[in-house]
Amino acid sequence: MAEPRLGILTNSREILPIPGSEGMALADLLEEPDAAIAMLSAWLEVPHMESLSQDEIQLLPPVDMQEVWAAGVTYLRSKTARMEESRHAASAYDQVYDAERPEIFFKSMPHKVCGHGDPVGIRGDSEWNVPEPEVALWINRNGDIVGYTIGNDMSSRDIEGENTLYLPQAKVYNNSCALGPYLTLGLTPEEAASLNVRLRISRNGKEVFSGETATSQMKRTFPELRDYLCRCQTFTDGAILLTGTGIVPDESFSLEENDVVEIAVQHLGKLINPVVEIS
After folding, report:
1. Average pLDDT over every residue of 65-91
2. CA separation for the pair 81, 79 (Å, rounded)
3. 161 near 97, Cβ under 8 Å?
4. What whole-number distance in Å separates Cα of residue 35 and Cα of residue 41?
5. Is the separation of the CB atoms in 245 and 191 below 8 Å?
6. Does domain 67-278 have CATH number 3.90.850.10?
7. Contacts of 251 (CB under 8 A, 6+ apart)
């Protein structure tokens, strides 16, 4: 297998591999975001750069050494759904939605993250599994939000609903986190705060669920979530923060093996993953 390289997505939807980027760390590239954007723009002007179609390459998730964290109950729909799944702990979700401090939890080590086209998992010991389409923040070692990508925070709702202390088991397991397909740089704060997010789930080629929301519906801002994540801890290689979901299927719906999850976010592309059962 060839060594991974960084590449630039062009307006024609082709990939321009960055010369000499083999082994380049994302943390080093994104330490100075303005410099990174200037450098990438300059590479686009280099004549005779090799151009590849997306069919010729494997898109890896935009993570190499970064921990992945997640925020919860940042949309009203998420609060309502989690109160429904865990009625004996409903007040906890109600309180955290209105509290000053957000819910933030660890999601994944970088080597366990799935990319575009990789299978995401549903737990074999769970009967109620859903995807959670989210905007993910790419935060550099200085604590700057330097980019955005799509995240899927897979969740076993019945496990969390049984006891809120089971949250890590409901959220953290093999193939439970997907990121991609790209890392988008250069969005303004205003653009990031009004991104359209769409979810489509298909089964045997037919749509079985769809939903839509927007980051403008969030209770909390991206900088606020970033600030709480970076309190009292440092990230030498940066970190990725999933920012919560506003699309939650009804109680009657659960993912099945061989379903296909498609998450499309304005400016960020489309993340597509088939579903497998994890034992």
Report:
1. 73
2. 6
3. no
4. 10
5. no
6. yes
7. 84, 85, 128
Please tell me the distance from the alpha carbon of residue 260 to that of residue 267, in angstroms, as a whole number. 22
- Please name the residue that has the structure tokens 């079985």: 208
Domain boundaries, the chain: 7-56, 67-278
Report the DSSP pairing between strands 133-139 and 239-242. Answer: antiparallel
Which tokens sit at 275? Answer: 């579903």
Q: How many residues appear in the chain?
A: 279
Structure-token pair, residue 175: 């193939």
81, 72 in Cβ contact below 8 A?
A: no
The four Cα atoms 114, 118, 124, 129 give a dihedral, to 10 degrees, of 80
Eight-class DSSP state of 242: E
State both tokens at 89: 């702990």
Phi, psi of 23 (to 5 degrees): 80, 0
* Model pLDDT for residues 121-143, shown as the tens digit of each residue: 999 999 999 999 999 999 999 99
Tens-place pLDDT, residues 232-254: 999 999 999 999 999 999 889 99
- The tokens describing 195, both together, are 């991104």
Instruction: Please say whether the dihedral angle defined by the alpha carbons of residues 254, 255, 260 and 262, taken in this order, is positive or negative.
Output: positive
Strands of the sheet containing 145-153, edge to edge, are 103-108, 67-72, 239-242, 133-139, 145-153, 177-185
Q: Let me know: does 54 contact 13? Beta carbons within 8 Å.
A: yes
